[in-house]
Amino acid sequence: MTASSADGPAVDIVSALQTAAYSFISGFPVFALHAAVTLAMLFIGVTVYMLLTPHKELRLVRAGNPAAAISLGAVVLGLALPLAVCMATSLNWADIVIWGAATL
């Protein structure tokens, strides 16, 4: 099954789909591991922040305090951005742990 375009040669659609499927199958477990490590580090960072902060922000958020919710959201975002850069530039999960610990 092939399709041809006006600009280029015929493309084997089945072969292209198989290549894409194999690429997904081989790359998705690595992505899932990197995402899990990054999310675990984010959780650890937010937990440490909440333990070190003298205010009980989670209790204040549950009580309906918008300032505490904005503050906690900013902390999560501020910790997530460097971790996202670590995940995007790392080659393996150990790189994420090392550079993530350095950024947190």
Briefly summarize what is shown.
With 104 residues, this protein is mainly alpha-helical.
Task: Please specify the SSE layout and strand pairing.
Elements: E1 2-3, E2 11-12, H1 13-52, H2 57-62, H3 66-89, H4 93-103
Helix pairs in contact: 1-3, 1-4, 3-4
Please state the structural category.
mainly alpha
Biggest β-sheet: strands ordered side by side in the sheet: 1-2
Q: What overall geometry do the principal axes of the alpha carbons give? A: elongated
Number of helices: 4
Strand content: under 5%
Order of secondary-structure elements: EEHHHH
Radius of gyration: 22 Å
In the predicted model, the low-confidence regions spanning at least 5 consecutive residues are none
How far the N terminus sits from the C terminus, by CA atoms, comes to 52 Å
Helix content: over 70%
What is the strand tally? 2
Instruction: Provide the residue-averaged pLDDT.
Output: 87
Major β-sheet annotation: 2 strands, antiparallel
